[in-house]
Amino acid sequence: MTQETIKVEGMSCGHCVMRVKKAIEGVQGVQKVDVSLENKQAVVEFDEGKTDVEKIKAAIKESGYEPV
Ligand SMILES: [Cu+2]
């Protein structure tokens, strides 16, 4: 299992946090997601054999937010 911290721009409330969390959870291979509005970041645990950071970032982007 790999853990990565991804900075996310554009979140302004709990609703945004839920949208980003749901988007990341929808990526196959993701095990655990913790999104922080205060820190503007997502801490993601995932199976390296099934997904990668680029795919997770793409899912964040699709949900309307900006991974950095
Ligand atoms: Cu919001």
From TrEMBL:
Query: What Pfam family does this protein match (any one)?
Result: HMA
TM ranges = none
Domain HMA span(s) in chain numbering:
2-68
Q: Does the keyword Transmembrane apply?
A: no
> Which keywords belong to this entry?
Copper, Metal-binding
Which Gene Ontology molecular function entries are recorded, alphabetically?
copper ion binding
| Name this polypeptide is given | Heavy-metal-associated domain-containing protein
Q: So which domain of life are we looking at? A: Archaea
Question: Would the keyword Metal-binding be found if you checked this record's keyword annotation?
Answer: yes
To which species is this protein native?
Answer: Methanosarcina acetivorans
Spell out the coiled coil positions from the record.
none
